[in-house]
Design brief:
The protein has helices at 17-21, 65-77, 88-99, 110-135, and strands spanning 3-7, 10-14. The chain has a domain at 57-109: Helix Hairpins (Orthogonal Bundle). By secondary structure, it is mostly helical. β1 (3-7) and β2 (10-14) form a beta hairpin. The chain has 4 helices and 2 strands; from the N terminus they run ββαααα.
């Protein structure tokens, strides 16, 4: 005989072998492709960013979530010739925030750190080039 009991916030359900042998009577409802709350991947059908996508690994909701959203949105909607070159400040703010929480956002190892510095240097170079073009 199956039964259920509550322990604090948890509900414990005991099922018998017979319970598992009985076919399920649950009916599945067809997915609505326009439902923004369904997991549609990173980009929703209307082109917006799906901040609930598991592919983001919780980055949008952590202590640096707002900085992440700002940087990622800037990059996603960037129309610059070098995509995201106009987002250096947002990515820098996100990086500075992440450095305040080393337990949540572990630093890269030595090899990754070198490529990260190379990427940052290239990004700053692109930003400087953009400024030079804008001032001429």
């Amino acid at each position: 005989m199956s039964y259920c009991r509550q322990e604090g916030k948890d509900r414990i359900i005991f099922a018998t072998k017979e319970d598992h042998e009985t076919p399920s009577s649950a009916e599945l409802v067809a997915d609505d492709p326009d439902d923004p709350y369904e997991e549609q991947g990173l980009i929703l059908p209307n082109g917006d960013i799906n901040w609930n996508c598991p592919c983001l690994g919780g980055m949008a909701s952590g202590p640096c979530g707002e900085q992440f959203k700002s940087a990622f949105s800037c990059f996603h909607y960037s129309t610059e010739e070098i995509k995201g070159s106009d987002c250096v400040d947002q990515f820098r703010a996100m990086q500075e925030c992440m450095q305040k929480y080393p337990d949540l956002y572990p630093q890269e190892d030595e090899n990754d750190e070198k490529s990260s510095k190379d990427l940052e240097a290239a990004s700053m170079e692109a930003s400087a080039t953009k400024e030079e073009k804008g001032s001429s």
